[in-house]
Amino acid sequence: MLKHKENFKKRTDLNKYNDNALLMYSLQLKYGIEDIHSIAADSLVDGYNDKKADLVYINEELGHAIIAQGYFTKKQKTEAPANKASDLNTAITWLLQEDIENVPKQIQSAAKELRSKINSKSINKISLWYSHNLPESTNVGKELKAAEKTLKAALDKNFEGNDVKCTSLEVGEQQLENWYKELTIPILVSDKIKVENCTAFKTSGSDWKAITSVIPATTIYDLYKAHKTHLFSANVRDYLGSRKSDSNINNGIKSTAEKEPKNFFVYNNGITALVNSFSYSPTKKELNIDGISIVNGAQTTGAIGSLKKRPNKDLLIPIKFIKCSSPTTISSIVKYNNSQNKINAPDFRSGDQHQKRITQEFSDLGRIDYSSRRGGAVDVITRNNNAIPSITAGQVLAAFHVKPSIAYNDKSKIWDRDDLYHQFFNESTSAKHIFMAYTLVKTIEELKQELVAKGESRTEEEETILDFLRSRGSIILLASSISDSLEM
């Protein structure tokens, strides 16, 4: 059995999403989402009149949006039905083109937010997904490409001057297996690499050894062309394409590579990579590498790999190769080699006195786990139902302290900005207080799930409540309203 299938079977927490359980699992694998249930509460579309959009997910931090159709079968089939992929054409029409007043209430809020984010240039990429539990096929691929053209046409017609990249992806058995392996196997690229006429020096620790040298940019260029994001298997959560804030950096890397190749070495911080093994001959000045996964320098690698032509032979990149057999040490290598990465902002508050105290308080309470830093691959693929992710803790605290806009739109900024961080994490913030705020938000999420499950048996009052909870950000807003009314 494929490894991801074994893991998915154990994810009983996803069963409540029924046929969309695999779709949520797919999204979690791809984006390294720890609290997938909060994402599901906001992004899953419910009801019979969803206009073929099972999920509309917006990750403003990355500038990505996903419009997805899901399919799950217990029958043995050679491929998924291609008409489900073509259904995405309908989803595109209703989400991006139809008059918003005519859009069904099930997807109206999603359509409003998606259009708003496109207009504000907050989204630079929209992907059409068809998620299923069968082998990928040519027929599905053709339908997705056709839908991709529909998406591009809809954007060009309705959003003048947009620069949104349109892509499509069949998330079938092989794609899911690849994502799962990228989370669980540090080094996927097994190429043997030879670097000639180089000088290198070695160093070592108790469970690792390393060698530092330079590598021709042509080698990096060829590796990236051959393997793409598999090159970042040990660090897949930290490389999901260029963020808007990184675009000038990447353009600068490309510009330097093309215009000042001889100075690239002194301008660039270089690359850190995990390897299976290495050997160096000082007499031959020859370095041999077996296997590679880049844990720092993804932007450099991506920029070099996406040059229009092979880089100049004079372009050299500083690089550090590390061989390590300890999973714990590997995790720390990945973490500390990405200290500039905004996605992992909670990691760099983990030494804060308040985080240490809160972590200890949760430990003393028992039953509930709390980590003051983002989790690793294990946290993503093996969901602990009694765990509160740190990024979620900041969000629910902001909601509880009546800052719904920050909680919904800027939850990552809580960890980036000192002024926001200390509003919610200070001397008076306790584990019990975080837990109360967390359970309030989770109770509202569960209420929405229960109302969705009732289907046509909902009362008129319940239908009104569900209409409100379908609105993007409504769960956070309701939590803030309840908190603000507690004294009354």
Overview features:
single chain, 488 residues, alpha/beta, Restriction Endonuclease, 3 domains, 7-stranded mixed sheet, 4-stranded mixed sheet, 22 helices, 13 strands, 46% helix, globular
Provide a brief overview of the structure.
This protein has 488 residues and is α/β, with parallel strands linked by helices. Helices cover 46% and strands 16% of the residues.
What do these coordinates show?
This protein is of the alpha/beta class and 488 residues long. The chain has 3 domains: 3-181, Restriction Endonuclease; 186-336, no CATH class; 342-484, no CATH class. 46% of the residues lie in helices and 16% in strands. The protein has helices spanning 3-10, 21-31, 36-43, 82-86, 88-96, 105-119, 138-158, 173-184, 217-227, 247-259, 264-267, 298-305, 327-336, 353-365, 377-381, 390-400, 404-409, 413-416, 418-424, 431-454, 460-469, 474-484, and strands spanning 55-59, 64-70, 125-131, 165-171, 189-195, 201-204, 208-216, 271-274, 277-281, 286-296, 316-324, 369-370, 387-388. The strands form 3 sheets. Strands 5, 6, 7, 8, 9, 10 and 11 form a 7-stranded mixed β-sheet that branches. It has a 4-stranded mixed β-sheet with strand order 1-2-3-4. A two-stranded parallel sheet has the order 12-13. The longest helix has 24 residues, at 431-454. It is globular, with a radius of gyration of 24 Å.
